[in-house]
Amino acid sequence: MDQVSRKKKSFISNLKDSFIQWIKENIGIIIALIILCLFLSLNPVTKHSFLTLKNVFNVLRQISSNLFLACGMTMVIILGGIDLSVGSVIALSGCIAAGAVSRYGLPLGVAIILGLIVGLVVGMFNGFVISKTTIPAFIVTLATMNIAKGLAYVYTGGSPVRVVTKEWQFLGAGYIGIVPTPVVILIIVLIITSFIMNRTKTGRYIYAVGGNAQAARFSGINVAKVKFFVHAYSGLMAGLAGVVLASRMYSGQPTAGEGAEMDAIAAVVVGGTSMSGGFGKIGGTIIGGLIIGVLNNGLNLLNVNSFWQYVVKGVVILLAVFIDYFKNRKA
């Protein structure tokens, strides 16, 4: 019994230490998030609508798709690369999954798996080309972005693929208890991603390759295998985001996911991941995703013109990159 108690105390102590370390690592962006929330809570225009339970759940539901992408994008950027294809993969995977239900009458589980496979296949293709050639990830994923977008339009003929069954809507618009289903899925994904990055050899290899690919290769790490895995995982996350978003919109739409890659990159960069590679934490990405989500929600509640919203998000990304630049220069 004493041994069990000691193990329990050790686990709680480790959990406490990890939480304190996470706070220390992300104190800057946590303060920024608190200031943003305080501003929206005290602002006369938004104070009666921002902190309501309905709006909080609405924000969490909206950021879930972005954080799915950001989980994969964090790994990609730590490698020193970028994945521009994820927005188009959202459209393609969502349309394929919705079409499997509405056009072919396939079970919901099969449709979800098909959507995930679409994302995984695109990610694997990206990973294969990037790991086997010297073509920059920017160029490869720019090409697959256009390919996936084109295939989504070809498959749908440019029209939404509607699905109105309650089973389909549960994944993106339903609740488990009082918690939105996408939020529950997001928690599971964040735990898996954090485990991969912090508790596995693959996670250590990702940081090593991002820090110095040549040194990692000389130390015996299979650099090509690491790059392939990271891009495949990013594609899988995009496929999941596509299925969940299609469920939330009650249809697969070829226009879905436009600009989603920018929001994902913004969440990762604001969360402290270095664009030069080798450094970043999924904990920071979570805060970055919350900042982007709260910012989007706040701008909508303030009735800010959608055109100006692009400007604001662009400024936020630029500030985050400048902070990263000065940190690296100081180091």
TrEMBL record:
InterPro entries: ABC_transp_permease. One of its GO terms (cellular component) is plasma membrane. Keywords: Cell membrane, Membrane, Transmembrane, Transmembrane helix. The keyword Protein biosynthesis does not apply. The keyword S-adenosyl-L-methionine does not apply. It is a multi-pass membrane protein. PANTHER family: ABC TRANSPORTER PERMEASE PROTEIN YPHD-RELATED-RELATED. This is Monosaccharide ABC transporter membrane protein (CUT2 family). It comes from Herbinix hemicellulosilytica.
